[in-house]
Design goal:
Elements (H helix, E strand, L loop, with lengths): L1 H11 L2 H43 L13
Length: 70
């Protein structure tokens, strides 16, 4: 009879429903994050390439051209 009482108590418990709600909410947040990442990925890569190109073309000024000298 003890096993039957445990099953009966489990069937009346609604804590499993709360767990399902959290799993669904977590899955929705993860899905939204993946959608955002896939949307902005190309723009971020292009921006990184532009920054890399600008930095590789940059030169360092000598101290005399900055208004002070040794």
């Amino acid at each position: 009879m003890k096993l039957f009482d445990i099953v009966k108590t489990f069937a009346k418990s609604d804590s499993g429903a709360v767990t399902v709600d959290w799993v669904v909410l977590t899955a929705a947040i993860v899905g939204l994050g993946i959608a955002v990442l896939s949307t902005v990925r190309d723009g971020v890569n292009d921006l990184g390439d532009n920054i890399s190109d600008a930095l590789s073309d940059a030169t360092v000024a000598s101290p005399g051209t900055l208004g002070w000298s040794d």
